[in-house]
Amino acid sequence: MPTLLARASGRAIPFMLALGLAAGGASAQNAYPSRAISLVVPFAAGGPTDVVARSLGAAMSKTLGQSIVVENRTGAGGTLASAHVARAAPDGYTLLIHHNGMATAPALYRKLPFNPLTDFAYAGQVADVPMTLLGRKDLPPGDMASFIKYARDNGNKINLANAGLGAVSQLCGMLLQESLGAQFTTVPYAGTAPALTALLGGQVDVLCDQTTQTIPHIKSGRVKLYGVTTLARIHALPDTPTLQEGGLQGFEVKVWHGVYAPKGTPPEAIEKINGALRAALKDPAFTQKMAELGAEIVPDARQTPAGLQSWLQAEVDKWGPIIRKAGVYAD
Ligand code: MLT
Fold first, then answer.
1. Residue whose CA is closest, atom 3 of ligand 1?
2. Measuring from atom 7 of ligand 1, which residue has the nearest CA?
3. Which of 132, 200, 221, 236 is in Cβ range 3.0-4.6 Å of 294 for a Cys bridge?
4. Which neighbouring-strand residues pair with 37?
């Protein structure tokens, strides 16, 4: 009898074990997320990426039923945060929100410790954000035409703040100098939150920054606004001319945001993250806040993992030659 039982259980145990493991695996995936999710922001708290991340996290957590905790990891124009997420456990509990910097980094950094095109799983895109060209309140030029003359006459006496190599403020500043044929003195910060503080305090002269941070300061009149960086005027600032209207033919910089996870994150988790992202992009509290701050929710096709992946590939292909031609890079 004991022998029979042993023989019977000897066959039964592996089978039951396999059934149990499969059930446990499935319920682990069904249970995702069972704890808080970290959303890594590559720039300083209070800045434009942080503003989008915190509002998005709050909206997504309504669908996911767990908190999304924003973690600011600054440095090297956003590349430290991206490298951190690329190396994080692929379990759906570490996500990254990043902008155009994800696509420009391969050309800007010769020793990039991650590959944006192969080291991530893609959750979807969020919003497009225009930029604004700002001066400190007492900078002499009053409009874009006089700014162009002032910039050409004063060149490197002008301090241009940015958030480091790979930041969109750097990209915008680089294109601005190229279009003006002027060379400013660049002052890098850990994000455009501290860069804007420096502009408000008069420690720097000029900053190109996203409307998601700048609109409240423009409305309170604490900075001088020269123009928006989109080809068409924007709803949130209808009376503000574009830089193109102001004299910089073809000038255009638009910021786009994507949400990423480490490569190998289970497809079931990505599906839930994407579902929560798409629900957030229809959430009235989120969409209203984005509209007030000049941001435009991306069309449905760009809200998908495939939409982000193909967009990123196209942006890498677009910016690589422009940046290499400009000869801007870090070793
Ligand atoms: C930020 O959040 O500070 C910005 O996105 C930085 C930048 O790219 O200019």
1. 191
2. 167
3. 236
4. 68
In order of 33, 237, 290, 308, the CA distances from 56 in angstroms are 17, 23, 10, 17
Distance 162 CA to ligand 1 centre (A): 8
Instruction: Tell me phi and psi for residue 253, to 5 degrees.
Output: -135, 125
Distance 173 CA to ligand 1 centre (A): 12
pLDDT by 10s per residue, the chain, length 331: 333 333 333 333 333 333 333 344 445 556 999 999 999 999 999 999 999 999 999 999 999 999 999 999 999 999 999 999 999 999 999 999 999 999 999 999 999 999 999 999 999 999 999 999 999 999 999 999 999 999 999 999 999 999 999 999 999 999 999 999 999 999 999 999 999 999 999 999 999 999 999 999 999 999 999 999 999 999 999 999 999 999 999 999 999 999 999 999 999 999 999 999 999 999 999 999 999 999 999 999 999 999 999 999 999 999 999 899 888 888 7
Burial class of residue 266 (count of CB atoms within 10 Å of its CB; 0-12, 13-18, 19+): middle
Q: 0.70 cut: is pTM over it?
A: yes
Domain architecture of the chain: domains with CATH: 37-128+255-326 (3.40.190.150), 130-246 (3.40.190.10)
Closest-CA residue, ligand 1 atom 2, reads: 49
Closest CA to 70 of 83, 89, 49, 54: 54
In this structure, are residues 190 and 42 in contact, taking their beta carbons and an 8 Å threshold?
Answer: no
